[in-house]
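Board work, copied verbatim: Acetyl-CoA hydrolase
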Amino acid sequence: MRTQYANKFVTPQEAVKAVRSGDWVDYGFGAGFPELLDRALAARRDELKDVKIRGGLVIRPRIEVVEADPEKKAFTYYSWHIGDYERKLQNRGLCQFVPMILRFLPELYRSHIRVDVAFVPVSVPDGDGYCGLGISNYAWKTIMSQARTVIFEINEHLPRLKGVNGSHRVSLSEADYVVEGEHEPLPVRSYREASETERRIAELVVREIPDGAVLSLGVGGVPYTAARMLAQSDVKDLGCHTGTISDAFLELYRAGKLTNRKKELDTGLSSWNLAMGSEELYRWLDEEPELFHPDDVDYIHSPERIGSMKNVISINGGVELDLMGQENAESAGTRQLSGTGGQLDFLEGAYRSQGGKGFICLASTHQKKDGSLKSNIVPFIPGGSTVSAPRTMIQYVATEYGIAKLSGLSLKERAEAMANIAHPDFREELLKYARENFR
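↓ predict structure ↓
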């Protein structure tokens, strides 16, 4: 294999010579990250101008091209979805946010935006020269088809699964250059102990989940806590069709709850686009690849495909909701906290699913800097904040005080239902606003 593709193997320093001033370079999404190429490109800071780099949801602690060029003379970094590290970059003026809904991302690359060079993290190739896309299938195959230059970075730590019918597989023949070398351990994401509020919300949601449900779980505290409760419950034969597979699903599998037996699509398989979690999660993917169907955004995030399965349960968090049911999932005023991501895809998919339910989960309040409480259910989404999901897309809202089912309700009825699950200290002022504005 190496002999056949020997001419493609170069050093990272040689590979990044493919990047020209004015280029758009794609780094990918999530925990998969081209660290060798990033470091080599950063070293070209004084040779290049106006290189734009796209990434998103980066959970490793450093992007070298950004840290090496804080004046942005050579490199400008753009994020599709703000992660913890990118939030810090944003505070320093070093990260530009680009709004998107994940299911539209492949079409953006096909028809609306340019990519010149793709840095694609891949697993160690097999004897036939095929690599897996590791923990970030993303929209890589679409991006590769549009790029002028494709560079594979072989990461020895990435899981080697190849997917179903090649869904997670690429060939060394598809790369213009291939680099390899020693990598840091894969970045991991851990979960803190759930708060009493998160446990109460999770308890309420878990009561709504039937045997055979197909789960799409966000990466916050409530989805993870709900999974832990399901693992200890009598519910059985759960399935997975999710944007991001996490330790929540590993817990369900270890408890014998995750069988995927009742799924009408990908029966017996857990379907996902990204993986993000512990070393144990990544090891599970590597050691038992026959349990999974990793695939690209076009496949996993299709509302029509999600809706073809029964009892799809989507559980995600929010920042605030207003009395009409509009949700802000991603910003504090104009400060971007995360991104829309795939939440709308799975809310719509759950709506389409027979027996499906889409939950937005949030604590009724948060504590301000002065120690006082502020309601997370508000009369209206304030100016500057994002409306991530329209009122027409929200089915269920859960706080520690209950669950409001909004679909089919009038504005007045929605406002009353939302006020009833708000913190008691804020209910009267919310109801007063509702009486005055939703007659």
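The first helix runs from residue 12 to 15.
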